[in-house]
Amino acid sequence: MRTVSLILCSVVLVDCATVAACSGPSVAEGYGEAMCTRWCVERRANISKVKGKNQVHSWLCLLYICLVLWRPVCSQCPESCSCEWDTATVSCMDAGLYEIPVDIPPETVSLHLERNYIRTIPESAFSELVHLRDLYLAHNRIDSLSTGALRHLGPELRLLDLSHNQLRQASRDDFGSTRAKTRLYHNPWHCDCTLQELMETLNLEPETVNGIICESSVRGMGEGSRWDDPSSLGEHAGQPIVKLLDSGVNFCSLQRKTTDVAMLVTMFVWFFMVIVYVVYYVRQNQAEARRHLEYLKSLPSPRKTPTETDTLSTGF
C-alpha cells in the first residue's frame, strides 16, 4: 500500500513540476529547448482544456495519500523523542522524561524509554499501542505499577524490559496475561508469596533470571518477631529468587505459617482481654452489692407508736 501511494504521489508531483517548469521563464537552449517548448505547449494546451478538473483531482489525490495511505508521515512524534517511520520505532532515551508521553503514535512497534526519571506506570499508558512488540523501560526510577498497568499490552508484545528500576513488589494483576519475554533483574525485590506467584506466571528471560535478587524476604517461623529487629531483611536476602524456589523454598507456605501464628496470638490476646473484663465486671458488681447491703443495714429499724399499742390492747 505504501509503494502504491509513493507511485501515485510521484506521478502527481512530476505532473505538477512539469506544469511549473513549462510556465517558467526559460529552459535549456538548442534542440532540447525546441523539443521541450513544443512538448510543453501541447501539454499546457491539454491541461487548459480540463484545468479545473485536473487541479481538483491532483489536490484530492495528495490529500488522500497523506491522510490515509501515508498516515505515519502525518503522525506527530512526541516531544524530546525521535521517530523512525519505516520501522515504526519511537526512541525517547535520555530525554529527561518524568512520565510516559501521552502522544505516542498508535502504529508504534518498538518503544524505547530507557534512562529517564519515570517513577510509575499509569493504568492506561499503553492502551492505544496495540501493535507494540518491544517495550524498553530500563534504567528508570519505577517503584510502582498501577493495577493492570501492563494489562493493555497486546498479544504481539515480544519483549518487556523493566530492569534497573526500583520495583519492590508486583503482582500478576499488574502484568495481565502477557507472554512476552520479561526482564526484571536489578530491582530491590521483596520476596514473598505475591512475587513467587508472579515468577511462576511470567516468561522470564533465561539469560537474566539469576539477576532477580531478594533484597528482603518474608520472615520465617524461627526468625522471631518482625518488630524485634527492624533492620533485619530476612534469611533469604541477597539470594536469587529462582534458585530459592528451585531449592524448595516456598514463600507462600512461610507466609501462611506466619499468618496462622499471628491469628493465634491475636485470638489469645482477645480471649484474655474478654476474661479480664468479665472478672473485672463481676468484682465491680460484688463491690456494689456489698455497699448497698451495708447501706441498708445502717438504716434505723421502724418502731411502733403509742396509739398503735393502745389500739391493740383494747382489742384484746
Query: How many distinct beta strands?
Result: 11
Largest sheet composition:
7 strands, mixed
Instruction: Name the helicity range.
Output: 40-55%
Uncertain spans, ≥5 residues at pLDDT below 50? Answer: 1-37, 66-73, 221-228
Strand order of the largest sheet: 1-2-3-5-7-8-10
Order of helices and strands: HHHHEEEEEEEHEEHEEHHH
Q: Which radius of gyration do the C-alpha atoms yield?
A: 42 Å
Shape: elongated
Q: What is the beta-strand fraction?
A: 5-15%
From the N-terminal CA to the C-terminal CA, the straight-line distance is 136 Å
Structural class: alpha/beta
Q: Mean pLDDT, nearest integer?
A: 75
Number of helices: 9
Task: Present the secondary structure layout.
Blueprint: H1 2-22, H2 31-49, H3 51-69, H4 71-74, E1 82-84, E2 89-91, E3 110-112, E4 120-121, E5 134-136, E6 144-145, E7 159-161, H5 172-175, E8 181-183, E9 189-191, H6 193-201, E10 203-204, E11 214-217, H7 241-246, H8 251-298, H9 306-315
Parallel strand pairs: 2-3, 3-5, 4-6, 5-7, 7-8, 8-10, 9-11
Antiparallel strand pairs: 1-2
Helix pairs in contact: 1-3
